[in-house]
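Posting here for the record, re: glycine.
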Amino acid sequence: IISKNIVDAHTAIDRIMVNKEFGDAGDKVIIEQFLTGEEASFLAFTDGEEVIPMASSQDHKPIYNYDEGPNTGGMGAYSPAPVVTDELFDRIMTEVMIPTVKGMKAEGTRYTGVLYAGVMIKDGELKVLEFNARFGDPEAQPLFHRLKSDLSPVLLATINGTLKGVTLEWDERPSVCVVMASGGYPGKYQIGKEIFGVDTIHEMKDVVVFHAGTTYIGRHLNANGGRVLGVTAMGTDLQDAKDRAYKAVDKIDFHQAHYRTDIGDKGLKY
Ligand code: GLY
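Prediction output follows.
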């Protein structure tokens, strides 16, 4: 729970420890430093020795524009994230990713796979918020859209311990992914709403619709989850990628579809 002042912090403690909203899980709390700044996602492949970074990306976790409302799994992402300058990119590698992989090996828990660091950046200062042992969703969508290298040999090299010398080739153009969610998500939402318009997207160049929570009922595509579609577009620059992603979103419809309209705006500040 992110508390912006002491009153919010007391309310949070009461919810957890007095009202027991999370049951026994609330018997212990961890109080962490409140960090401000801009978040970015940094993913890399590692075979336990080599660390091969992917391009930078940025998620949009809250449900509403301007980062308002409760956190979700992610309402959109774009790559690259200009907040991760070349200098910060190198620092994240040398100060975070490589020491983490080396440290895990030294502790006898060698890690193989995708390592994802969520970082907070403020005035050139770098803090690690979290690690995930997986790709990011929806960060993976713009990343895979831009990845020109074949993914399967990279995954095999990750597993086989042969990542040394592997390089990844990226499309220079930015990619923006807008998540279309079911109305009510991340709270209660209804499934089973028919989705219209996805077929029309095939005509749009450099636009991909990634399916997250969808299913076919007979021949009809239906929403079947909280986050339903990741509508992803590349453009000549970030503004163009954003415009093209929202043009595609406009062609798709299902009852009570919800999406943010500001995906990529943080990057446009730069
Ligand atoms: N998009 C945030 C995550 O995958 O954890």
